[in-house]
């Protein structure tokens, strides 16, 4: 289990249990969609500015997110959610999102980025978001958990956003 944090153009890897608990920014994203593209560029740009940024790096995946990871979200100043095509297929992304929305209610700044997805698809759970949630419903049979994910997606998608359309074009 390793994390990468950045401070002034440097990064270091260390265990979640030995990492600082406070980050300026927590990045929430679907690794398969954006880790090697948008998210890595964003992470590097934040680090170059000296912003202490959390990004998971080879965290072991399981059914449940660790309490330490949830605490890391809670102790961050800002969360950036990078919605991408397959975002909702990740239960980890969705569980992190629920925590982020909870933290927003307690004053955390939350910034959604829509990476090649329509914000209305996220808000209304259409297209790939609908497909993923339907699969989760069949797999988990836990209506309360699925409803928390749906509510969090809806709420986060209604926050003023940055929409990545093509190369470096953002709208708000």
What would you say about this model in short?
With 172 residues, the chain is α/β, with parallel strands linked by helices. It has helices at 31-34, 38-48, 67-75, 91-105, 119-123, 128-140, 143-157, and strands at residues 2-7, 10-14, 25-29, 53-57, 78-83, 109-115, 162-164.
Helices and strands in order, then pairings?
Blueprint: E1 2-7, E2 10-14, E3 25-29, H1 31-34, H2 38-48, E4 53-57, H3 67-75, E5 78-83, H4 91-105, E6 109-115, H5 119-123, H6 128-140, H7 143-157, E7 162-164
Parallel strand pairs: 3-4, 3-5, 5-6, 6-7
Antiparallel strand pairs: 1-2, 1-4
Helix pairs in contact: 4-7
Domain TIR: 21-172
Pfam families: TIR
Protein name: TIR domain-containing protein
Describe this structure in words.
The structure is a single chain. This protein is of the alpha/beta class. The chain has one domain: Toll/interleukin-1 receptor homology (TIR) domain (Rossmann fold, 3-Layer(aba) Sandwich). The chain is built from 7 helices and 7 strands; from the N terminus they run βββααβαβαβαααβ. The protein has a 7-stranded mixed β-sheet with strand order 2-1-4-3-5-6-7, sandwiched between helices. α4 crosses α7. The longest helix is centred in the middle third of the chain and has 15 residues, at 91-105. The radius of gyration is 15 Å and the shape is globular. The model is unreliable at 1-18 and 166-172 (pLDDT under 50). This is TIR domain-containing protein. Residues 21-172 form the TIR domain. Keywords: NAD. It comes from Quercus rubra (Northern red oak).
């Amino acid at each position: 289990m390793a994390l990468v944090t950045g401070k002034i153009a440097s990064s270091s890897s260390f265990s979640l249990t030995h990492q600082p608990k406070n980050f300026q920014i927590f990045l929430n994203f679907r690794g398969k969609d954006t880790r090697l593209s948008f998210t890595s560029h964003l992470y590097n740009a934040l680090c170059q500015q000296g912003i202490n940024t959390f990004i998971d790096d080879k965290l072991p995946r399981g059914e449940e997110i660790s309490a330490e990871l949830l605490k890391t979200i809670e102790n961050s100043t800002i969360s950036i959610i990078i919605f991408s095509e397959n975002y909702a297929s990740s239960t980890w992304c969705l569980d992190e999102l629920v925590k982020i929305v909870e933290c927003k209610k307690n004053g955390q700044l939350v910034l959604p980025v829509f990476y090649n997805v329509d914000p209305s698809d996220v808000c209304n759970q259409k297209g790939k978001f609908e497909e993923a949630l339907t699969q989760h419903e069949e797999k988990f049979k836990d209506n309360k958990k699925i409803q928390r994910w749906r509510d969090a997606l809806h709420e986060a998608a209604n926050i003023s956003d940055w929409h990545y359309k093509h190369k470096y074009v953002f709208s708000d």
